[in-house]
Amino acid sequence: MAKVSATKGSLKVTAHRGDAKTLLAFDLLQESARENLAGFTISAAPPSVAPYFLQNNLRFEDPAAHAQDPMEAAFSSINAPFHKFRWVHVPGIIHQGLRPAFGMYEYVVTPRYFDARHSMLPLDPDRSVSIQIEVVPFVKGGLSVGFTRGFTQSQAFVNRFGRDASIRPSDAPLQWDTAQTSGRNARGETFTYAQQYEWLGFTARDMVFGVLDEVAADQGLRLDVFAYDLNEPDIVGRLLAIGEAGRARIILDDAALHHDAHKPKPEDEFAALFADKAGGENIKRGHFGRYAHDKVFVVSRGETPVKVLTGSTNFSVTGLYVNSNHVLVFEEGEVPGHYAKLFREAWEQGVRAPAFRASDLAVQPFAFGGDQEAAGSITFSPHDEATARSILDGLVQRVGAESQVPGGRGSVLFAVMELGGTAENPVYDALNAIHADDEVFSFGISDNPDGIALYKPGTRQGVLVTGRPVNTQLPPPFNQIPNIGGVKHQIHHKFVVCGFNGPDPVVYCGSSNLALGGEVANGDNLLAIRDGDVATVFAIEALALVDHFNFLNSVAKGPRASKDAKRTASDRQGAVQAGWFLGTDDGWVSKFFDPHDLRNRDRELFAD
Prior knowledge:
Elements: E1 3-8, E2 11-17, E3 22-28, E4 37-45, E5 52-53, E6 86-89, E7 103-113, E8 129-135, E9 138-140, E10 143-147, H1 155-161, E11 181-184, E12 190-192, H2 193-217, E13 221-227, H3 233-244, E14 248-253, H4 266-278, E15 283-286, E16 296-301, E17 304-311, H5 317-321, E18 326-331, H6 335-349, H7 353-357, E19 366-370, E20 373-381, H8 385-401, E21 411-416, H9 426-433, E22 441-446, E23 463-466, E24 494-498, E25 506-510, H10 516-521, E26 524-530, H11 532-555, H12 571-578, H13 598-607
Parallel strand pairs: 13-14, 14-15, 21-22, 22-23
Antiparallel strand pairs: 1-2, 2-3, 3-6, 4-5, 4-7, 7-8, 9-10, 10-18, 11-12, 13-16, 16-17, 17-18, 19-20, 20-26, 21-24, 24-25, 25-26
């Protein structure tokens, strides 16, 4: 069940199912219900867990002037309702700890109101709308989708693990014990790297280790691997063990960033270890025309492919625990077979671009799914230039088609690592420009866009933000978010969602950087999945990222302070000290019902 709605009186609430998260969207159907609106209070009741109120990042300047629950914090939404018509709830960010409960959640949404003196009235349960939806890792038929949290640049990470938490020991070898203590948070609680990794890696990590552990436990299974970055210590350990058992083969990138004969890279160290334990005949190094960029596990029983894992997530500490990334697992059906053919072709040809471009795998899409399964197609690169252009032009045309949807109901939401550079890239051009088209709702994020377009009241212009405010600092008194040294990317996704909530939704995803040069030179896979449930999962990921980084982009003030710069305030304390408070009238509401404002289109799209 991807979406459920409930209406009571003037309030309509729609809940969209994400990957272990929920997008809650609201609408007030009568104009009179918008008068003196103070915001929305939201409570969540997980299975076998006491209900709790979701928390805001802003509060009233004088909480005592408003109805308050003394048992709740001033930032609790019962005391500080949300001034938005949607909210993404991710269990485990504030409540429930490292392992939140999954199952059927009940959300209760209540509109709150001011009296004539601009004082918020007590919560009226007669106005509340209750709605139930599953909050679980996403599975539809034989397809599972997972995401990393990508939350090192957040107060949620700081509050849980401390500002000085390290992502890995500075002197760590390729293999090291993740059970060792990583740090201590402001409450004096210690935690291990493994605990930190579990939280940061979220459902993507569960899926990666789920496949590895399944193969390790079943002597009848074999594993073929494409790896680009490879240095996550527990993944390394499992691959070495499966290889030593004679049940793994690996194609490992050997481009210059992963290979140095004089100063070995982690991938060089792994290759030597794997060759020693599994035999040199079971590992091949190569880079096609530039990079062997796939991140793939193919699981087979005998000669039959039964499962494949793919996506944008590298099998590295950065890929799983710093970058924002996605993972897909297909069980049975046609998809594992397509990837098994890909591995066999690359293996037999020695990971060489000319031979692969000439193969049948590089010149056609491979369809999958249908009926009750998610349907779509896959293309495998490197391609010849004409094929690469045709594939990317098709994506560009699909993006452009959203501008033609009647009533301005078209939408494009995306998270794409790279949108810059001087080379010809039709997809980058289209995504850099889409925010200027006020006939389509667009929300996008990239580490390197051509420019930033923040929300502007009174216009329908889309939003385009950067995921790399690591080069900027938050103004005092806000806490400095962690600057993870040496990390090139925050947004490592490469996905585009077109037609959310429409009749023909599609998400493009996978390892492809969506660049013309990459499609010609790199070993990559690009999926187009035409399924509303899957498109919703990716759309929610885009919304959460854009909302988070829109704040960081809007307050960033220039070159980041040094690592040793200290701030004493959290987001909430900083907002108070900076004089940022919830308003005490309904002036915030009008933009959500102004047909010339992006917020109005936002409300209509997600509240359906």
